[in-house]
TrEMBL record:
The lineage of its organism: Bacteria, Pseudomonadati, Pseudomonadota, Gammaproteobacteria, Alteromonadales. SMART domains: DTW (SM01144). Belongs to the TDD superfamily. DTWD2 family. It comes from Pseudoalteromonas nigrifaciens. This is tRNA-uridine aminocarboxypropyltransferase. Its EC number is 2.5.1.25.
Length: 197
């Protein structure tokens, strides 16, 4: 029997997070390239961004054919959040000033392995300057384990990016993430919950 879902947040009714959703008027448009395997992951945070950010779009796929919309983006003011050797650190003010104005932020939503695959299959992404951070904020997303120490959830990465680029207050996004964690762990068996606490 299928679980009843909230019509707005699309989580199960017993894990509905609508009470913590706050509308945020971001100036930089966020474009999330979501690997198809992430869509049905209950702990995926991209949909949380879509609930809060006024200007946010999720595009599902893994290659140029799926991401044709990227062709229309302005190359000079669009950046891709990805930590490669060419990336400019957003937390370096001098470096950030060379990028401004930034109008579009592209983020890949998937495991490191899947994100790398999307990058390899999507030559359209090579057109854009990559950005990253020299110093990462503390990972708050304890209920989804990551193999790398420099891992952030998609929500955390976007929240930190927008804070650095446009001084957007990340608190409402972090509050929503905290609500998701609280709702998800509340219904876990004690032995499962112990792994994350």
């Amino acid at each position: 029997m299928a679980r009843s879902l909230c019509n707005f947040c699309l989580f199960a009714l017993n894990t509905c997070i609508c009470s913590a959703v706050t509308s945020i008027n971001n100036k930089v448009k966020v474009i999330i390239l979501q690997h198809p395997s992430e869509e049905k992951v209950t702990k995926n945070t991209a949909k949380l961004l879509n609930l809060c950010l006024a200007d946010c779009q999720i595009i599902k796929g893994e290659s140029n054919n799926d991401f044709a919309q990227l062709r229309a983006l302005p190359v000079s003011s669009t950046v891709l959040l990805y930590p490669n050797e060419q990336a400019i650190n957003l937390d370096n003010n001098d470096a950030l000033n060379t990028l401004l104005p930034i109008t579009h932020l592209i983020v890949i939503d998937g495991t490191w392995k899947k994100a790398y695959k999307i990058l390899q299959l999507s030559s359209l992404l090579q057109r854009f300057q990559t950005v990253s951070f020299a110093n990462l904020p503390k990972n708050r997303y304890t209920i989804r384990k990551a193999p790398r120490a420099d891992s952030l959830s998609t929500l955390e990465a976007v929240a930190h990016s927008l804070q650095l680029i446009e001084q957007l207050n990340p608190a409402p996004l972090y509050n929503l993430l905290d609500e998701l964690i609280q709702k998800q762990t509340h219904h876990m068996p004690a032995h499962v919950k112990a792994r994350y606490l």
